[in-house]
Prior knowledge:
With 215 residues, the chain is of the alpha/beta class.
Amino acid sequence: MKILIILAHPEAKSFNSALFDTAIDTLKKNGHEVKTSDLYRGNFQPVSDERNFTRLKNETFFKQQYEELHAVEQNTFSIDVLSEQEKVEWCDIMIWQFPLYWFSVPAILKGWIDKVFAMGKFYDNGKIFDNGLSVGKKAMLSITTGGPKKNYIAEKYGDMNSILFPIHRGILEFLGFTVLDPHVIYAVERLTFDERKVVLNDWSEKLMTQLAELE
Ligand code: FAD
């Protein structure tokens, strides 16, 4: 299978980076094709504005979705946007690896979402959810948290499925992706080194099992 993994973490020696590297190794060893975007190391520029395009249809009033429709027709997406769009179009499965920031994705990944999923290319009038342009593709979030699992309940922070709903439903399913169960590692800083090694091993096994079931 063709798998795209996006990493959004500022530190190359972070645990998120270790989860990212583990996924790449595991998937390659099991014969899958892997493409990646390491957003920080790749200096991804996350601000979505007129720089998403090489030329604008309307130079006097910037309206992103109109410019996206124009860019699909005229092939005028900037190279950073286009190269990420091509990776999403290429993959069968997309994995996002990130630390939970403010119950959401880090800003660099939000910028990637805002820039990459252009109208006319990834969704359009009526081409959403079951008719979405990414129907047939799958997506999985792989997340770490600072907070412990016991706090992710309705009476405290809210359960993780509710927290992830805007991403799962408002972005991935909206585009047509089938959302796989998220991989969530709670309170990663509170684990011992050995416990973190077990987490990496379990992640590798989970990927192998899950992908074998999908093939
Ligand atoms: P790291 O600190 O990188 O890693 C933990 C430990 O693992 C480190 O000691 C590291 O050296 C070690 N390690 C690295 N590689 C390996 C390896 N191969 N084997 C073994 N050990 C290894 N948390 C919440 O719960 N909810 C929130 O809403 C939230 N919002 C946040 C907002 C912001 C802006 C920030 C900065 C943090 C927020 N957090 C939140 C906390 C954040 O989610 C956690 O700090 C993060 O998930 C921890 O993951 P990490 O990869 O950064 O850990």
